[in-house]
């Protein structure tokens, strides 16, 4: 899921950069302009989209509904009538303002509705894929923990802070390799494993390692198939057991019916004999 977040973060960065560059280029002409109406009220062009930094700031906070709706307004200074210089003409750039609002709304739709829902869908798909392969993921995760545990000290945290004989021996061995490295051994250091010794792997081991991993994977899937086959056999045995039980009950019912019919026949014959004797 972290990879999905990284991918969509890059996509969002591209989208916000493109819209910021376009809107900043679109509104930079109106930077600092003041409009004065007939009553002497002055309106100053807001600096939401007049520069690249302000545009990025406005678009980012607009995702959280913290940018004013008037951010895309266009304010242009008054023009003087050529025939009468004292008379001012109100100038409006309505088309430019509509395009600005359209770009602003398009950014909101693309970033909030499209990209966010795509991220949710992708993360859900990734979670479902991992959940379907939970046994394999757990097996490989456990193996990775085992390998990390075996490559470090013999005690789990926080007991690994206590010095042990093997840990002290590993430290002395690391210093020995660092000061006088033998052929094929190198003293390394990293944030993950601290101090460790790296040894060259022989050519035959490099060939045997993939074969070993392949054999382990095949054994895992073979055991999994055997478990599934055993479960299938158990299901068949259960069905056979139910059939035998049903057959046994049918036989018992048949015997019971035959015994009842024989008793009724005997009673009828005895009744006939009594009537004949009379």
TrEMBL record:
Residues 252-278 are annotated as: Disordered. Its main location: membrane. GO terms for biological process: regulation of cytosolic calcium ion concentration. The keyword Lipid metabolism does not apply. It comes from the Eukaryota. The keyword Ion transport applies. It is found in: Membrane. Residues 4-132 form the Ion transport domain. Residues 253-266 have a biased composition (Basic and acidic residues). Pfam families: Ion_trans (PF00520). Keywords: Ion channel, Ion transport, Membrane, Receptor, Transmembrane, Transmembrane helix, Transport. It is a multi-pass membrane protein. Residues 267-278 have a biased composition (Low complexity). GO terms for cellular component: cation channel complex; plasma membrane. The chain crosses the membrane at residues 6-27, 99-120. GO terms for molecular function: inositol 1,4,5 trisphosphate binding; store-operated calcium channel activity. This is Short transient receptor potential channel 5. The gene is Trpc5.
């Amino acid at each position: 899921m972290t990879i999905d977040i990284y991918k969509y973060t890059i996509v969002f960065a591209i989208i916000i950069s493109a819209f910021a560059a376009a809107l900043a280029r679109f509104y930079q002409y109106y930077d600092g302009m003041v409009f004065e109406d007939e009553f002497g009220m002055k309106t100053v062009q807001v600096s939401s989209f007049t520069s690249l930094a302000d545009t990025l700031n406005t678009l980012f906070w607009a995702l959280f509904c913290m940018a004013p709706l008037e951010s895309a307004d266009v304010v242009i200074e008054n023009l003087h009538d050529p025939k009468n210089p004292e008379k001012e003409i109100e100038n409006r750039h309505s088309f430019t303002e509509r395009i600005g609002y359209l770009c602003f709304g398009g950014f909101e739709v693309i970033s909030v509705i499209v990209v966010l829902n795509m991220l949710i869908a992708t993360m859900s798909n990734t979670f479902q894929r991992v959940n379907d392969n939970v046994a394999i993921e757990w097996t490989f995760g456990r193996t990775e923990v085992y390998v990390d545990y075996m490559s470090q000290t013999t005690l789990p945290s926080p007991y690994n802070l206590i010095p042990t004989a093997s840990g002290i021996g590993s430290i002395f061995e690391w210093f020995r390799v660092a000061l006088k490295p033998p052929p094929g051994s190198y003293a390394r250091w990293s944030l993950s494993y601290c101090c460790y010794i790296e040894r060259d792997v022989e050519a035959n081991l490099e060939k045997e390692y993939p074969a070993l991993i392949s054999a382990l994977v095949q054994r895992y899937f073979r055991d999994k198939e055997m478990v599934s086959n055993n479960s299938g056999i158990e299901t068949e045995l259960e069905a056979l057991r139910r059939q035998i039980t049903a057959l046994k009950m049918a036989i018992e019912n048949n015997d019971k019916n035959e015994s009842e019919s024989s008793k009724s026949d005997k009673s009828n014959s005895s009744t006939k004999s009594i009537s004949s004797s009379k």
